[in-house]
Amino acid sequence: MANIKSAQKRIKVIEKKTMQNRMIKSALKTTIKKFLTAVAAGNAEEAKVEFKATARALDMAAGKGVIHKNKAARAKSRLATKLTALNA
Predict the structure, then answer these.
(1) Fewest CB within a 10 Å sphere: which of 24, 39, 63, 67?
(2) Region of residue 42 (phi > 0: left; psi between -120 and 50: alpha; otherwise: beta)
(3) Domains in the chain, please, with CATH?
C-alpha cells in the first residue's frame, strides 16, 4: 500500500476506472453474443436489431477508450459480413 496521499488517491481512482471498464467490456461481450446467437439461429430480423445495438456498443466502448477504435471497426466489419451472409 502506498504511503503518499496522492498515490493512495491514484490507487482508488484506478480501481474505480477498472471496474467501469470491466462493466463496459462485459456488456459489449454480451451484445456480441446475442448477435451471434441470432445469426446462428438464422433469425435475420433479430440479427439486424442486435447488429445495431452491437455497433452502438462497440462505438461507445471505443469512444471511452476501453477498446481501440480500429478494433471496434474491425469487429463491426466482421459482424456486418456475417449479417449479409445471413441475408443472402
Answers:
(1) 63
(2) left
(3) 26-87 (1.20.58.110)
All cell numbers assigned to 34: 446475442
Does the predicted model carry a pTM greater than 0.70? yes
Convert the pLDDT of each residue in 53-80 to its tens digit: 999 999 999 999 999 999 999 999 999 9
| Long-range pairs, 53-58, Cβ under 8 A, ≥24 | 54/79, 55/79, 57/27, 57/28, 57/31, 57/32, 58/28
Q: Pick from 47, 33, 30, 31: which is nearest to 85 by CA?
A: 47
- Give the largest CA-CA distance in the chain: 62
Taking the CA of residue 30 as centre, how many other CA atoms within 13 Å lie in the half-sphere pointing to its CB?
6
